[in-house]
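Quarterly update from the structural biology core.
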Amino acid sequence: MAGHTEVPGVSSQNIGIVIAVISSFINGSTFVLQKKGILRSRHRGGSYLTDVVWWSGTLSMIIGQIGNFLAYNLAPAVIVTPLGALGVLFGAVLAAWILDEHLNILGKLGCVLCCCGSVVLIIHAPKAEATSRLELEERLLDPVFVTYALLVVLLLIALIVWIAPAHGRSNVMVYVAICSLFGNFTVPSSKGLGLVAPDAFSDGPSSGRALVLFLMLLGTLAVSILTQFFFINKALECFSSNIFEAIYYVAFTSTVILASALLFKEWTALTATDGLAMFCGFATVCVGVVLLRICQEASIAWKKKEEGREKTD
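Predicted structure, tokenized:
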């Protein structure tokens, strides 16, 4: 990407890819470590906020998010985002080792299908990104994107205020929907900060306007990440870490693609071949999610059966 300082012989894009891969493995461990901390604190009868393992997962999440921020500003999002699939697969392996959360054959197949389908979606999604602050400002004020953002905010309010308290602990899709919808703001804000920062901290005539936009994007990013962090832990209190992580990755990726298409008007560059490939990728993802849901229901039924046996004994 133009404007970035490069190491001799190494492009900024390659550096971004390396950072993205490392961040994916770090992010893959966060849900597992936080889940382990929640289980440890529940066994002790205390709060997970006092558990060192939970805090190690939280620290991993912070480091991973910083890595993602750097990667998104060094390499195209279309390259960085699919690398998150590595974290999903690593998290599933780690969960089997640390949490003894073993997916059945349907769960394993669903996890792989979700990752493969998401990668196909991203590879064939049309690509266009803002290259200047002025272009970003123009696109942020586009009526189509503004309408979409307002609809997302209203949907988030409905999910957080009414649906989550009633159905959040029984349906993993509620917390997945909340966390993934915030992806509409997380990735565009991360990319926007990289574009706006040079103007915001310069002595140019438009530095004041750029600084305001920089602070707005930073605030949006902070609120988005903190809210996702809260509801991710709510989900981990109730559901398997590897099932939640796989479905969350799919939903987050899909919302990022949709928001990017609206913000940058990418649908105008969509070809018939890419459209068909994206449809196939989406169908693959849907099958994967269904298999994971079946795996989750089977796990819940097994736990209820075991609890019934313990009460009988």
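Residues 272-312 form the longest helix (41 residues).
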